[in-house]
Each structure stands twice: as C-alpha cells, then as structure tokens.
Amino acid sequence: MSLTVYQMAYSPFCIPITAALRACGVEFTTHEIPNWDRSELLRLTDGAYYQVPVLVHDGHVVIESSGESEDVAHYVDKHFAGGRLFPERLDGLQSIVIEFLSDDLELQTFRLLDPYTRDKITDPIARGLYLRHKERKFGRGCVDQWRRDAAAIRAEADRLLARFETTLHHSPFIFGDAPVYSDFLLYGILGNLTYGGHHALCPDQSALSAWSERLAGIRFQVN
Questions:
Q1: How sure is the predictor about 67, in pLDDT bands with cuts at 50, 70 and 90?
Q2: How large is the average pLDDT for residues 111-124?
Q3: Quick one: which of 67, 201, 95 has its CA closest to 87?
Q4: For residue 152, how far is the Cα from the chain centroid?
Q5: How many Å apart are CA 168 and CA 176, to the nearest integer?
Q6: Taking the mean position of all CA atoms in its chain, how far away is CA 176?
Q7: Of 76, 205, 206, 214, whose CB has the highest number of CB atoms within 10 Å?
Q8: Phi and psi of 214, rounded to 5°?
Q9: Rounded Cα–Cα distance for residues 29 and 34 (Å)
Q10: Quick check: 127 and 121 in contact, CB under 8 A?
C-alpha cells in the first residue's frame, strides 16, 4: 500500500489527518508543500485544487469538495479507522463542534502563529507570495496587525478554549471515553497554536494538556 499526505506541517487541518493515521497504525509518508508555492498540488489535481491536506492512496487523489467539507477525514475514517472518527450516533453533535472549531476557534489561533511563519521566510519572493495569499483574504497589513493584537487574540482564543477545558475535566475525550474527529481537529488547532514553541497552553489549561497527551498516545484496535 502507498499512502502520502501532502501537507504543511503546522496546518491545523493537516495535523488531525496525520494524527488519526498514526492512531490507526497506518504507514504513510508526508510531503511538505511550501505555503507560497502550491504548484505541485495543482499539478497533482490537474489544476483543480491547491489547498492541504491532499491524500494520495494507491494513486487515488483525495481532496476536499468544498470549504466546509471533511472529505479527507471521512476517507481516513472509512478506509483506516473503521468508523471511529465519525460514529453515526454523533452525526449532528459533531457537525456543531467541528463548525465551531473550524470557524470560530481556528480563526483566532492561526493568527498567533502566522507572524512567526512569515518571519522564517527569508526569500523575498516567497515572503511576498505568502503575504499576498494572506492579504487577499484578510486585507493589506493583516499579518503585522495580528502581531500587534496578539494579546487580545490569545485572550479570545483562551475564552473559546475554556468550554473544552471544562468538558475535559469530566471526560477523557470530547464525547466520552474514545476520541472522534472533533478531538483530532482540536488537537490540530492546538498543534498549530504551539508550533515552533512560540506559544504554549496556559497553566490553567491542565485538562487540555492532559487530553493532548492522551490523544497523542492513542492507538486504535482496527481489524
């Protein structure tokens, strides 16, 4: 079997896929895509897609069908996780939590890392293309503004994380005794936040910290 994840290592949407594959005990390779150069993804998908993650399983290319889909995660669930990521009993509840994580929480957390990501790009052309990608969506000067507003952005992120901190004081995982895709998505968002060591969980986020360690060590028994 051949399985490759085309990714950006710090992406809050790539980290959940690779973490879920590890939990399934699946052998896979990763291929890093520069944020400022998506040409390889465009060639891979015949010009149809330029975002990450992209999964290539035995020559079959798996992409998202829309900005709101979870097609790659559902593919991993169907082919490797045995339905553990999206159990039918949680269909409605998971949709609510996934939307909140993707739209509300991730909107805050990625802004905290992006200035550091920009700083690491030494090539002026690559840095300019990275900024163009960001500024087309969020406006000119957005990355510098996020650096200036970092304290307020982090405060809002922590306010949103508080509901998960409370939940995980009473439950090993978000929906009970076993992790589902919502757990892996939150894990990816926190992995993005803490990538490179620029940010860390706060001391009063002890339940999130313990949950993160549990999830990192989880291994599914997949037939």
A1: confident
A2: 97
A3: 95
A4: 22
A5: 9
A6: 21
A7: 76
A8: -60, -45
A9: 17
A10: yes
